[in-house]
Each structure stands twice: as C-alpha cells, then as structure tokens.
Amino acid sequence: MSDDNPHYHGHRDRLRARFMEVGGEALPDYELLELALFRSIPRRDVKPIAKELLKRFGTFAEVLAASPARLAEVDGIGESVITDLKILEASARRLAKGEVAKRPVLSSWTSVIDYCRTAMAFMDKEQFRLLFLDKRNALIADEVQQSGTIDHTPVYPREVVKRALELSASALILVHNHPSGDPTPSSADVKMTREIIEVAKPLGIAVHDHIIVGREGHASLKGLRLI
User: Fold this and answer.
1) Total domain count for the chain?
2) Which residues form the domain of 71?
C-alpha cells in the first residue's frame, strides 16, 4: 500500500458508512470518538488516540466534559481537537436543554434529569445551578448560581430567592453535581435546601426539588423524602 493511501483511509470510509447505516447508538464509545476526531486529525490513525482518551477519562461523555488542560495532556490532542470536542459538548447540552425548554417541567421529568446530567454530571468542580419556572412550571431561565471547588460550592439562600424574584419565577429546581461521582446527598446539601425553602415559601416561591448528579447517577431530595 502506498504512502499516499494510508491504511486508515479505508477504515474511515467503512466507519462512516456503518455510522450512517446503523446510527451512533450501535457504535462503541471509541468508534464514536474516532468519528469525532476524523476532521480535526485528518492525516493520522485516530483509533489509538480515541482509546487513550477513553482510558484516561472513562466514557465518551467524560471525554467531552474534560477540561481543555487535561485534554491537552493526551498525546495527539492539540488546540483544534480540543475546540471540536468542546463544540460537541456544547451541542449535547443545547440538545438536552431543548428537550425541557418551554414545556411543563414536572411532566417531562426524565428530560430534566437527562439535561442536568448532560450539563453537570462529569464536571471536575462543584457547580450549583438553578432552574427557574413560571406558574405553569415551564422553564423560564437556567442559570449557574455558583461554582466552587472539587467538593464545595458556597450557596446563599437569600441570593437564590432574590434572583427568583427578579425573574418573577413561581418555582425553583435546585441542581448541583458531585465530582466524586456519588450523587448521595450530604447533610449539608439537605440543610442548605431546607434553608432555601424556608426563605422562599413566605414569598410564594415553591422549591420542587433538589437534584444531585454524578457519574454514577442522580439523587432527588424529594424522591428520598428529605424535603
């Protein structure tokens, strides 16, 4: 085989064809990642790079969510690859958010959980997010209230409620992530949630739930009867 027609060219064509025939759901993570890398790395066999990324980070979703600095540690990953992966991550978040926008959130709860996990489950630092709902429980705003360290995010109940009043929100869903992967709520999580409920209730603002997400799944404080 000549240098002008490297072995991976045929592999790329076959993988693209299989993707179009069976769809992404039928492909393992490393092959889907290969497809994502084809355009950013046109003249190199990307299978070893895809497998190294998965070895380092775990899953396709965790590769997309990895920080640019950590991605750059992998041999073969340069600025253009990082940009393309971050575009994919942003696209996945936008798609998941579209499933919950302008729909009654409480009747599309699975989509809400999927969106929260897509947005936050694989982050390496804690982040506290607020979903603001109107009287019909439709999403009117989705904002990151605070970002913290690997295991702590400062949350101020009065600031949360103040923002809800500014947006004329009737209800809230609190969301944060556990970078450890385990979504089990801590006593501090429960205490903070109850404090927000206490401040919000007299002002006519309901707190529907506090969802905690992690690589291992999610937890609902309401579902666990902790609020």
Assistant:
1) 2
2) 7-94
How far apart are the C-alpha atoms of 221 and 211, rounded to whole Å? 7
**Strand order of the sheet with strand 127-133?**
139-147, 127-133, 171-177, 206-214, 217-220
Distances (CA, A) of 176 to 87, 94, 127, 173, 203: 23, 18, 6, 10, 23
Lowest mean pLDDT segment, chosen from 20-34, 86-100, 156-170, 192-206: 86-100
- Stronger pLDDT, 103 or 74, i.e. the higher one: 74
Give the chain's end-to-end CA distance (angstroms, integer): 66
Domain co-membership, 78 together with 156: no
How many separate helices (H) and strands (E) can be counted in the chain? Answer: 9, 5
Residue 153 and residue 81 share a domain: no
Read off the pTM: 0.69
Selected residue with higher pLDDT from 150 and 124: 124
Instruction: List the CATH number of the domain containing 56.
Output: 1.10.150.20
Burial class (CB in 10 A: 0-12, 13-18, 19+), 7: exposed
The pLDDT confidence band at residue 92, using thresholds 50, 70 and 90, is confident
- Which amino acid would we find at residue 13? D
Side-chain half-sphere exposure of 41, counting CA atoms within 13 A: 22
Q: With H, G, I as helix, E, B as strand and everything else as coil, classify residue 20.
A: helix
Asked if 180 contacts 215 with a C-beta cutoff of 8 angstroms, the reply is no
